[in-house]
Amino acid sequence: MMKLIKLFSSLMMLAVFSNANAQGYCDSEGASEDSNGVITFTGNEEVMGDCAFAPDEYTIKIYKMALCTSAPTRPTTSDTYDVSSCVDVINSPNGQDVNLAAGSEMTLSDVSRPANGSYSYGYILMANTFGIKAKKQFTNTMHTYQDGISGNYCWTKDASAYNSDSDGEEWVSPSPLAECGTASGTAGTYNETLDQFDVDEYIAGPISVTGGTLSADLITDTDGLLVTASKTADRLFGVQTFTSPVVVTSDSTVFTVSFGVNQASSMWMTSGGVPANQYQVYAIGSGPFSTFMSVE
């Protein structure tokens, strides 16, 4: 009998739901992170490469997680997803909140043992709102957008927003989502709702990652259909194709789900209106994360 589901927040080099390169934490054109986690930015933020980093806390809500013998059919705007080949591992009608603090391990509830067999696919149904708590140090002078406090540290505030707000058209001053200043600043929890992957884009992948490929779709709980507008989704449906099948036998006792969150945060900022290599910060938002499943 499978006795335990473990959830690890690990520093795996994976990326999903984004085209961000997962090689390193923040190491690209105009952005780098040293061994102490201190970030340095150079130049105009519009031409920088990807820079994502691990938050201090990363909270998600899981409704379902399952293993599948054949690939689930992804949702469209007219047909819901098909998971008839799948067996539930977690089924929480009300959802269960999970805090993926780096290096943590926890036991989940509402667990069922999948039947013995070989499973080449898995899926997860989760809320598309993520709780992010982060405080980050920079070598640059960072300003609270637009007329706020400045310093070498920035942190999240207790607030909520949609990731589609990151285009800057609706930014208010000073930012209600993040603050910059000295090392004495205290981070709050910023709840970001992922309502699009890019402007007017509500599907992502499949994307190649370590251990397989991953895809994601933004849907509504009411009908399970793919959304067609920002600020309308309330669920994220993700599918993983495993490079090596997950094999459940009579001796299997532990199902392990690892979440890679080393790139689960990124900066909303602009280099406009400040001296060179200084930046105005509006938020510390969500970045790519990933899952990996195994059985012992």
Structure description:
With 296 residues, this protein is an all-beta fold. 0% of the residues lie in helices and 49% in strands. The protein contains no helices and 22 strands. It has strands spanning 4-10, 27-28, 31-33, 39-41, 52-53, 57-68, 86-99, 105-107, 117-126, 129-133, 135-144, 150-156, 159-162, 178-181, 190-193, 203-209, 212-219, 235-248, 254-260, 265-270, 279-286, 290-295. The strands form four sheets. Strands 6, 7, 9, 10, 13, 15, 16, 17 and 18 form a nine-stranded mixed β-sheet that branches. A six-stranded mixed β-sheet has the order 5-20-21-11-12-14, with no helix packed on it. The chain has a four-stranded mixed β-sheet with strand order 8-1-19-22, with no helix packed on it. It is elongated.
Stretches where pLDDT is under 50 for at least 5 consecutive residues are: 1-24
Largest sheet, described in full?
9 strands, mixed
The total of beta strands comes to 22
Give the strand content: over 45%
The separation of the N and C termini measures 12 Å
Q: Give the helix proportion (percent range).
A: under 10%
Category from helices, strands and their pairing = mainly beta
Give the rounded overall mean pLDDT.
81
For the record, the count of structural domains works out to 1
Sketch the topology as an H/E string, one letter per element: EEEEEEEEEEEEEEEEEEEEEE
In terms of quaternary structure, the protein is single chain
What count of helical segments does DSSP give?
0
Give Rg in angstroms.
20 Å
Task: Identify the overall geometry.
Answer: elongated
